[in-house]
Amino acid sequence: MKEDIKKSRWLFIPLGILIFICLGTVYSWSVFRKPLEDYFQIGSTQSGLPFMLFLASYAFLMPAGGLLMQRFSPRAVIMAGGAMVGIGWILSGYSNDIITLSFTYGVIAGGGVGIVYGVPMAVVAKWFPDKKGLAVGLTLLGFGLSPFVTAPIARLLIVLYNPLQTFKILGVVFLFIIIFLAIPFKFPANSILPDSSKSNYGSNYKFEIETRQMMRSSKFRGLWICFGISTMAGLMSIGITGSVGEEIIKLDPGHAAWAVSAFAVFNGIGRPLFGWLTDKLNPYRTSLITYTIMILAATLMLMAGNGSTYLYLTAFSLLWLILGGWLAIAPTTTLIFFGQKYYSKNYGFVFTAYGVGAILGVLASGIIRDTLGSYRYVFYLLLALGVIGILVSTRFIRNKEG
Predict the structure, then answer these.
(1) Which pLDDT tens digit goes with each residue over 283-308?
(2) CA 395, CA 251: separation in Å to the nearest integer?
(3) Domain limits at 49?
(4) Domain containing 311 — which CATH number?
(5) Cβ neighbours, 10 Å, residue 306
(6) 168: closest CA among 256, 279, 94?
(7) pLDDT by residue (tens digit) across 8-44?
(8) 250 and 151 within one domain
């Protein structure tokens, strides 16, 4: 019986991947940006508002998903959030201006993603107590790789129709896919859980810490700051990837766009890779690896100039990799430090660091570019963030086991 359960539990990972592909379409926003600027006759600052609000809404509504899961089944929460996602996209197709679109796409659809986001991870984590990091990382692969699937489809629909009609079509598709895929999701009975004795989580895994107690702990503060730093660095890098390629490396727009698509692979790979590393090592050692990579990538870009294509490709592959990595490190570390019982609610509050990092990252890169005249200076900030990350990890995240 237990062997059958261990085999059937793997079904939740591909189902979660498909749900996250729908949710992760926000990373394809650049496909919509220029067409919307032409359609509404607006500038680049305004066209970035729906994207920024989407990231903030889904980060800050993550705790709501955890609270809802305490009262309702995972299936019901995914369906409710999925309905918000689909309706938000559909209503975006009826927008008359960028302000309306910022609300329908940024707040409604983004909020729906926030409600759904933690649920597949919580379900998968409970079905895989023996390999949480790997299972959660594999499930999150869909979010990182989403642009590979959704960006070409969105681009084709925009060419065939227009950006608003594309919102409607994708909204209907997302509505039905997410609600349909939600049907099998449920938590396992404790009696059928596989053995978790072989995991490398250390002594902290023995504790089940509720949210209020968690938020008073130094480990929560350290994890929150580290996640925020990594998100700020990662989303700042993602937002300027194409522009840096054109401005500093002097790539033509076509090659710069190709590079952005290629980097999405590293964003996806980072999730199972660093989830697995967190399983095998521990959160402290894994975090040090990410900040060392960040410092290396920033250094490479400070060395880069006209024609330094290989330095550019290497540096931004690493930066996209560690953003994906922290989206597996953070949930896995939440499980390790604070246990499984209150995980959904706990990770919802940890994930608010993503929203703060997103806002600071988008604003910081723009301010640096406008003030100093080049994106090159962003990489000095990335260097500093890498050093701060190492210091915070060492002070707050390091376990007694080292």
Answers:
(1) 999 999 999 999 999 999 999 888 88
(2) 41
(3) 1-192
(4) 1.20.1250.20
(5) 8
(6) 94
(7) 788 899 999 999 999 998 877 877 877 888 899 987 6
(8) no
369-401 as b/e: b if 16+ CB within 10 A: beeeeebbebbebbbebbeebbebbeebbbbee
Task: Please spell the DSSP secondary structure of 43-77, one letter per residue.
Answer: -HHHHTHHHHHHHHHHHHTHHHHHHHHHHS-HHHH
Both 162 and 294 in a single domain? no
Structural domain count, the chain:
2
Shared domain check, 188 and 239: no
* Pair 122, 206 in one domain: no
Query: What is the gyration radius of the CA atoms in the chain, in angstroms?
Result: 20
Do 359 and 52 touch, CB atoms closer than 8 A?
yes
> Please, are residues 27 and 319 in contact by the beta-carbon 8 Å criterion?
no
- How far is 57 from 70, CA to CA, in rounded Å? 21
Q: Which residues contact 159 (CB under 8 A, 6 or more apart)?
A: none
d(CA 121, CA 140): 8
Last residue of a domain, one of 145, 163, 192: 192
Judge if 127 and 219 occupy the same domain: no
Same domain, 296 and 265: yes
Look up the pTM and report it.
Answer: 0.76
In whole angstroms, give the CA distance from residue 359 to residue 357: 6
For residue 45, with 0-12 CB atoms within 10 Å meaning exposed, 13-18 middle and 19 or more buried, which class applies? Answer: exposed
What are the φ/ψ torsions at residue 188 (nearest 5 degrees)?
-80, 155
